[in-house]
Write a structure and sequence with these properties.
The structure is a single chain. This protein has 692 residues and is an alpha+beta fold. It holds the Pfam family Hydant_A_N. This is Hydantoinase/oxoprolinase family protein.
């Protein structure tokens, strides 16, 4: 396969670095041989019944096709959906929650918000821990960290016995004000471990010691809920890699776009719940910087969902409160919005005769009808086949052959129910999918306060290039950029990611000259913790420490995260800190109060250890009209047109052509609508521009 990345040469023979991402339908591989700069990429169908088996299959195929030797692998980075799927499918461990007596309803009350305030029929999801598994313990810590009531260990012993009798496999301990002092949680955890060594125990302060009992409790619950499955999966992964003779210690992609080792992943499972979506954005931001694109909207379409994120000034955006299934995740993560529309999303006709798409997906088993793996219901992929955009080459590196007859049969069943021609029905499926994505992207842009007409759309994943250009056209975006291998961008993201650990201290203090000393001490403590964490990950080079604080005006209910310079703390520059808060508040809300009193709630620190230095090779562009491989009929929305079919591998830097057109390659198919001018840049990215 062609080389798309160059890297520093290894010193001792071949030096393979491998990024892997498991999605709902495919597992993606991006393998780099550092000496030569050669890249091998691959897709393999997932095996939901045996997670991890597809990884060994992929390594075997890479060895056969590329001369890849797993024994020479010096870096192995892995993203997985085991954790998030466990939550979505509600197949996690039965848990018990130990909290303060009188506060047993904390996870049911949550924040008293409805998921959809405009719906009369919406309801909140059932908690992951049922009410009969929540036990109140007589114990109390004051807000200043002093003990008001010591834990009643007799009550703990009674609660442990009841939890075991009710089938609990693990216990979450979350007490009031443990963000200030976690001693009570630690004491109760130790007692549980002594009384019931067969149960696993997590305390909220050790998982994420942040103020607000619901956020702290729910984060710890998510961690415990997925712990057995994630830990078991990672243990099996390590054993499989060892059996293959892989010397590299496996690293895992995290929700914050960074990496951690597998040993920590078994314990801090909550940090990897959004690993796949986050690594896709990290890979896209790396590609954007290489191409000089500073404002990008990413579109990652897999088999079950479409994920959107913003890249601003070449960097991914971060936040808290991302949804894991139906539950908010309160640790820092790459800001990604998701919708249940993917290539495998099933189209159906409801009781009122209305055509709908998703969120139910055919997944990898049986998959879309056109895959010939037993699927009989029409999907978005089948609609692409019926319209003629898809099905002109092998897919997924030769693992799939499109059966157009099966696609026509599946979509034809819907067409008969609707009383419409089959091509119009297929186009309606695509239009609905694009419109549903349009709504969610507009919401994302509104929240971020950006004008998408200033952004470039970067589609990736197996389905991103199929629908991306159509979405960009509807959004009024003028540019689309598809990387040379868009189908494996998430795997690339793991390959280029840095080690990244996030740490927090809640201070909850007025911002004043008197408070600066405490803020400085918190930063220094977090810096030590961050450096120690990097050392435990095996990083012995320089560390990048990024400081931010959650602040608000007195009287506000929620705070905003403001990036600060550590030098301001060292110099005691209170005015600079205040000014940074005022400016950011103005940017977000178009308002600030220069005389308002400011509260500082949390001090945050990100410790970053730089990953491998990689870069895309540049090839001089030569203006040349691309020569199509052949022409084919495509239903473009109103009529059947004859369009050009291009082979991506034959397109060289400087190649140009007009839409409508189809570009085929091993990992995806790029559908290009009318009105688009296409050009291949010096990095082999395919750029589309739409006329004003």
């Amino acid at each position: 396969m062609d080389s798309t990345i160059a890297a520093d040469a290894g010193q001792n023979g071949a030096d393979w670095k491998v990024g892997v991402d498991i999605g709902g339908t495919f597992i993606d591989f991006c393998a780099l041989e550092a000496r030569s700069g050669r890249v091998a990429s691959l897709k393999v169908l997932t095996t939901p019944e045996d997670p991890g088996a597809e990884l060994m299959t992929g390594l075997t195929l890479l060895a056969e096709r590329e001369g890849f030797d797993p024994k020479l692998m010096t870096r192995f980075v892995h993203g997985t959906t085991v954790g998030i799927n466990t939550i979505i499918q509600r197949k996690g461990a039965p848990l018990a929650l130990f909290t303060n007596a009188g506060f047993e309803d904390v996870i049911e009350l949550a924040r008293l918000r409805m998921p959809d305030m405009y719906s009369l029929f919406c309801s909140r999801p059932d908690p992951l821990i049922s009410r009969d598994m929540v036990f109140g313990i007589p114990v109390r810590m004051r807000a200043d960290g002093s003990e008001s009531l010591a834990p009643d260990m007799t009550a703990v012993e009674t609660a442990v016995a009841a939890a075991k009798a009710n089938g609990a496999q693990g216990i979450i301990v979350s007490f009031l004000h443990s963000w200030r002092n976690g001693a009570q949680e630690a004491a109760v955890k130790a007692t549980i471990a002594r009384l019931a060594p067969d149960l696993f125990v997590f305390s909220s302060a050790e998982v994420w010691p942040v103020i607000r009992e619901y956020e702290r409790s729910s984060t710890a619950i998510l961690n415990g809920y997925v712990h057995p499955r994630v830990s078991g999966y990672l243990t099996a992964l390590e054993e499989r890699l060892k059996d293959r003779g892989v010397p590299a210690r496996p690293m895992l992609t995290k929700s914050n776009g960074g990496l951690m080792n597998a040993a920590e992943g078994k314990r801090a499972c909550v940090n990897m719940l959004l690993s796949g979506t986050a690594s896709g954005v990290i890979g896209a931001s790396w590609l954007a910087r290489q191409a000089g694109e500073d404002k990008v909207l990413t579109l990652d379409i897999g088999g079950t969902s479409a994920d959107f994120a913003l890249i601003i000034d070449g960097e991914a955006q971060f936040g808290t409160g991302e949804l894991i299934g139906e539950f908010p995740l309160h640790i820092p993560s790459v800001s990604v919005s998701s919708i249940g529309v993917g290539g495998g999303s099933i189209a159906s006709v409801d009781a009122q005769g209305v055509l709908r798409v998703g969120p139910e997906s055919a997944g990898s088993t049986p998959g879309p009808a056109c895959y010939g793996r037993g699927g009989e219901r029409a999907t978005v992929t089948d609609a692409m086949v019926v319209c003629g955009w898809l099905g002109h080459s092998e897919m997924a590196y030769g693992q799939l052959r499109i059966d157009t007859g099966l696609a026509h049969r599946a979509v034809g069943d819907l067409a008969a129910r609707l009383g419409r021609p089959i091509e119009q029905t297929a186009q309606a499926i695509l239009d609905i999918a694009v419109s549903e994505m349009f709504v969610d992207v507009e919401k994302l842009a509104s929240r971020a306060g950006v004008d998408l007409r200033d952004f470039t759309l970067m589609p990736f994943g197996g389905g991103g290039p199929m629908l991306g250009a159509f979405l960009a056209r509807e959004l009024g975006m003028k540019r689309v950029m598809a990387a040379r291998r868009p189908g494996v961008v998430s795997a690339l993201g793991g390959l280029v990611a840095d080690l990244r650990g996030d740490f927090i201290r809640t201070l909850f203090t007025p911002l004043s000259a008197v408070a600066l000393g405490g803020i400085r001490e918190a930063f220094e403590a977090l810096a030590r913790e961050g450096r120690d964490w990097l050392a435990a990950q095996g990083h012995d080079a320089a560390a990048e420490l990024n400081l931010s604080c959650d602040m608000r005006y007195v009287g506000q209910s929620y705070e905003i995260e403001v990036v600060l310079s550590p030098e301001w703390l060292v110099d005691g520059n209170l005015a600079a800190i205040e000014q940074a808060f005022h400016l950011f508040h103005q940017q977000l809300y178009d308002f600030h109060d220069p005389d308002g009193e400011i509260e500082l709630v949390n001090v945050r620190l990100s410790a970053i250890g730089a990953g491998p230095k990689l870069s895309l090779p540049e090839t001089e562009e030569v203006d040349v009209a691309a020569i199509p491989t052949r022409r084919l009929p495509v239903y473009t929305g109103l009529r059947v047109e004859t369009v050009d079919l291009h082979d991506r591998q034959a397109l060289v830097p400087g190649s140009t052509f007009q839409g409508p057109a189809v570009v085929v390659q091993e990992d995806t198919t790029f559908a290009i609508p009318a009105g688009a001018q296409a050009r291949v840049d010096r990095h082999l990215n395919l750029l589309l521009t739409f006329a004003e």
